[in-house]
Design brief:
about 325 residues; alpha/beta; 9-stranded mixed β-sheet; 9 strands
Length: about 325
């Protein structure tokens, strides 16, 4: 039995240990970062997440006084990268960029993943994106009405590429074919860029992609834009109709990208990374690059980790219902 004095001594030791830990954590956070940070991108270079990551990382690095190195880890709709990120030391030196696919839908599609939503802590939302359906330039249908009619006359014969099952581009595809009521073959790639390359080469009929990575190819007439799942037309693609204008109002494809760290990362470090992300998206350099990509930064009240956490929680449930048949 521990005496009253013994209990007091144990309590004092525990309090001292906690104070020592808190002091050490605060000191670590104050010095953070002392070396380069790695930002894991769950897809191949050149896709939407990669372009946004590189744009934001450059300015975050300036704000933090350290380089942020991009590491592309493609595979399994982004879950390969998230598995890598979840195993990283929770010290702020390894973070990941994710979206509704990698950080919400993937839990339904791959229910046996070695990580859960609780394996990560949110840092900040950094971008809002808009989904587009684009076709190979020689596809016979000239508008959405003709495309749907063609698809219904040729069930299962149209191939639409995406960045892998579970990616945000896959969700664009799923939302589109569901709203259109068509049977199309959805072809997964290890990122948006290789899917777009095959669409440009007419090896597939089209892609489900974000404006950030497909707008330039549409403007250069390498592929033909069909519809954007947005409520307003995009400044970079003024001739591309919205889903409502094209006659398919149920097609909605507005997404977001956020930054995450492994569970256990000190809150003071998260706060520093959040501040750097907030500073980055408010710079003229990021605003200009985002405008070129038909991407927008979050509103000022959407920069907090809490907002990103609520978004993830909502999307996990949303895609659990939508993608129940895709579970592996």
């Amino acid at each position: 039995m521990i005496s009253f004095v013994g209990k007091r001594a144990l309590a004092a030791i525990a309090a001292l240990s906690l104070a020592t830990f808190s002091f050490a954590t605060a000191a670590f956070a104050q010095d953070f970062p002392k070396r380069p940070i790695t930002m894991i991108v769950p897809f191949a270079a050149g896709g939407t997440s990669d372009v946004i990551a590189r744009t934001v990382a450059e300015q975050m690095g300036i704000a933090l006084g350290q380089t942020i190195v991009i590491e592309n880890v493609a595979g399994a709709g982004g879950s390969t990268a998230l598995a890598r990120a979840s195993r990283a030391e929770p010290d702020g030196y390894t973070i990941a960029i994710g979206n509704a696919g990698t950080n919400a839908a993937t839990y339904t599609i791959y229910p046996k993943l070695p990580f859960t939503p609780e394996s990560f802590v949110p840092i900040a939302m950094v971008a809002k994106t808009f989904g587009i359906i684009a076709l190979r330039k020689d596809f016979p249908a000239k508008d959405l009405k003709e495309f749907i009619a063609y698809a219904k006359a040729n069930p299962g014969k149209i191939n639409l590429g995406h960045a892998g099952v579970g990616s945000s581009n896959y969700l664009i595809c799923k939302s589109f074919v569901t709203a259109a009521g068509i049977d199309a073959t959805l072809v997964g790639y290890r990122g948006a860029a290789p899917a777009l390359t095959d669409a440009v080469g007419s090896q597939i009929d089209g892609v489900c992609d974000a404006a950030a990575s497909v707008s330039q190819s549409i403007n250069e007439k390498l592929v033909r834009g069909l519809v954007v799942g947005s409520t307003v037309r995009l400044a970079t693609l003024p001739d591309l109709p919205t889903s409502a204008e094209a006659g398919l109002p149920d097609f909605e494809a507005q997404g977001s990208n956020g930054l995450f760290a492994p569970k256990g990362t000190p809150q003071a470090v998260i706060a520093k990374l959040n501040a750097a992300a907030r500073t980055a998206v408010e710079t003229d350099a990021v605003k200009k690059r985002f405008a070129d990509l038909s991407t927008v930064a979050p509103d000022p009240d959407e920069h907090t980790p809490e907002v990103l956490q609520k978004l993830v929680t909502r999307d996990v449930e949303k895609y659990r219902k939508m993608l129940a048949d895709d579970a592996k």
